Every structure is written in C-alpha cells, then in structure tokens.
Amino acid sequence: MASTWRLLDTGTRRAAENFALNRAILEARKRGLVGSTLRFLQFDPAALLGYHQSVEQELDVDFCRSQGVEIQRRVTGGGAIYMDESVLGWELYLAKSDLGSPDMAAISRRICEVAARAVSAFGVRATYRPLTDIEVDGRKIAGTGGVFDENALLYQGTLLLDFDMERMLRCLRLPAEMLSPEAIAGARARIVNLRELLGVVPPLEKIKHRIAIEFASELGVEFEPGELYPQEVRLFREALKEIDSADWVDMVQKPRSDLPVLEGAHRLSGGILRAAVAYDRPGARIKQVCFSGDFFVYPPRTVADLEAALKDCAVDNIASAIVRFFHGRRIEMPALSPSDFAVAIDHALRAA
Predict the structure, then answer these.
(1) C-beta contacts of 68-72 below 8 A and 24+ residues apart
(2) Residues 68, 129: Cα–Cα separation, whole Å
(3) CA neighbor of 251 nearest in space, from 3, 2, 19
(4) CA 175 remoteness from chain centre
(5) Strands, sheet with 126-129, edge to edge from the N-terminal-most edge strand
(6) Of 53, 81, 145, 230, which is most buried with the most CB atoms under 10 A?
(7) How do residues 234-244 score in pLDDT, each as one tens digit?
(8) What is the per-residue pLDDT across 316-349, written as a single tens digit (0 to 9) for each?
(9) Rounded CA gap, 118 and 215, in Å?
(10) Domains plus CATH for the chain?
C-alpha cells in the first residue's frame, strides 16, 4: 500500500509569511513532528534578497517602494529575485531516506524531470537542463534548488505562469544598459512562461493537480490535502517575529561603493559588444555580468550560460574561465570570438 503524504496549499502570501513557513515546516519535518509534504505557494509582489545580500547593493529601493513591492530577505542563499502571483511555487519537505540518495545533483535531476513531465502534460515539450532548470526549446520556464538540514530536505521549484520580466529587472539595481528595450527583449528571449507558450494560463488547480500526480507517481505515494499542525503554527509564529522586521531585512549592510556596477564596450568588425559588470571590489571578483550589443550567437542560450559561468569569478581567472566555457561547444558566432567577451569585461573593469 502506498504511503500517504500531506498536500498543503498555503495560497498567496506576503514574502515574510512564506519564508516563516519555510522555516517552520522544515524544522517540523527535521524533528519528525510532521510527515513528508508537498506545498504550493504564491507571493504578493516582492523583491527577495539572498540571505547574505545587502539591500542597498542589490535592489532599486525607490522603484520597489513606488510600486508597492515588499523587500524581504530569504532564509537561503542565492541572488536577488522578484516574485509575484504570476509565479507558482512548489516545495517538497522530505526525509533524506525518501529519495534513496544523498547526492543533490542526482536529486535535482530526478525532481526536475518529474516537474518537466508535469509541464509537458499541457502540450509543450519541457525538458530538464542541468543543473537545476527546466526549459522549453532552450528557454527557461522553471527553476529549482534544494538544501539539506540534517536529516531533512527542502526542495523548491518555481513555474512561470505569466511573468513580467521588465518589472523584475526594474526591481534590481542594474545599469541603465540592462534596462534598455534591447536588453529587456534579450532577457525575454531566454525565458518563457505558460501564457506565451499556450496563449492562456491553464487553471491553477489543474496545474497543481498535474504536479501532484507526477510526484505521486514517481515517488510511489498518495497525497492527501491537509493543514498546518499546531506545532508548525507555533514554529511559524516564532519565525515570523524574526523575519517580518526591519532588523531581519537590514541584517546585512554593505556600502554600495563595494559593489559598483561598471560598464564597458568593445567594438567589433560588425558591431559592438557591451559588458555590464557588478564588481565585488573587496573580493576582486565578478559578482554578475550581462552582455549585450550587435552580435549573433547560436544557440541563443549561450550568452546566458556564459553569464552564469562567470558569476563569482575572480578577476584574474576571467580569461581562462571563458576559454573553458567555450571548449568543446558547438556554437555559431560570426565576427565574434571568445576572447572578445574577456576584452569587453576588461573595458568595464578599467573604471574600477
């Protein structure tokens, strides 16, 4: 007989409440107070920092406040992101033994392939993209990530329903170049949502039902709708007192001057290649880079993958990291070479 796991739907909430629930449910699962759980969630508009990030360095505070966007700090690491009701979140709270492997890479592949099957059920061809993404025809439609806490695992995923890319970008502290119509169009070309693919967003309950069916089939369990247990409610209230406060949001304060956003341009024979670099001055590292300009690259996802490969790269290692990235890949780049990307970054860093 299949095991019965709990299905939670906590609806649309403020970010502080969602994060307090993260902490409460994971702690309860770790202590063995509750069984394994699949949770669905959504956010009121919110700009979300990674646990170690600074508001002043990462976000356009004035824009967020003018738009009624909540600023909140996640309980996990990673970069700053934007969330609202147009993104469906799902979370698995499990015991390590539930998946039969402690290897996070193997866990990510297995869970992402399940989620991809759920998305594909609506008439698109969604596939797993290592290490933690789900894509349709090379464009990202879902992201995931997991963290162990002793004997418990929290694995989270998001599915883009009708996502506003421009609003997300404007919440972040980015150079003007990255907010140009061309740059926004480029970002949209790398990400896709269900409305764009299908012309309409399927009913939310159908999407949740399909995700639950696929996980139940893969894991050999049955899901039964449930509620928070009293122990979780108590843990939630304790966590919310800490998280829903200015002290929590402003816990990390770093001067903006330590993370300047620098811009450089490299002229090519047939156009121009621009690099916007968030530069970690104390660590002499590239925190993030964005390339734009007049050039053609195929597959189109290549530039986004290169940007991801260069995150947190030491300045002294940029050239070698770019060489490693392009080695063995079949990429079309007329009038553009791998070294041109290093030159564009170098032009930006000269301002530092």
Answers:
(1) 69/45, 69/171, 70/14, 70/15, 70/16, 70/44, 70/45, 70/46, 71/46, 71/47, 71/249, 72/14, 72/15, 72/16, 72/19, 72/46, 72/47, 72/48, 72/243, 72/249
(2) 34
(3) 19
(4) 20
(5) 126-129, 133-136, 139-149, 152-160, 87-95, 37-43, 3-13, 221-225
(6) 53
(7) 999 999 999 99
(8) 999 999 999 999 999 998 888 999 999 999 999 9
(9) 9
(10) 3-248 (3.30.930.10), 256-349 (3.30.390.50)
Give the C-alpha separation, 309 to 341, whole Å: 13
Alpha carbon 202 to its chain centroid, in Å, reads 22
The reply to whether omega before 92 is within 30° of 0 (cis) is no
Q: Which two tokens stand for residue 342?
A: 């290093």
Mention every residue, 6+ apart, whose C-beta is less than 8 A from residue 316: 284
The C-alpha atoms of residue 161 and residue 141 are separated, in whole angstroms, by 9
> 């304790």: which residue's tokens?
238
**Separation between Cα atoms, residue 340 and residue 321, nearest integer Å:** 13
* pTM assigned to the model: 0.84
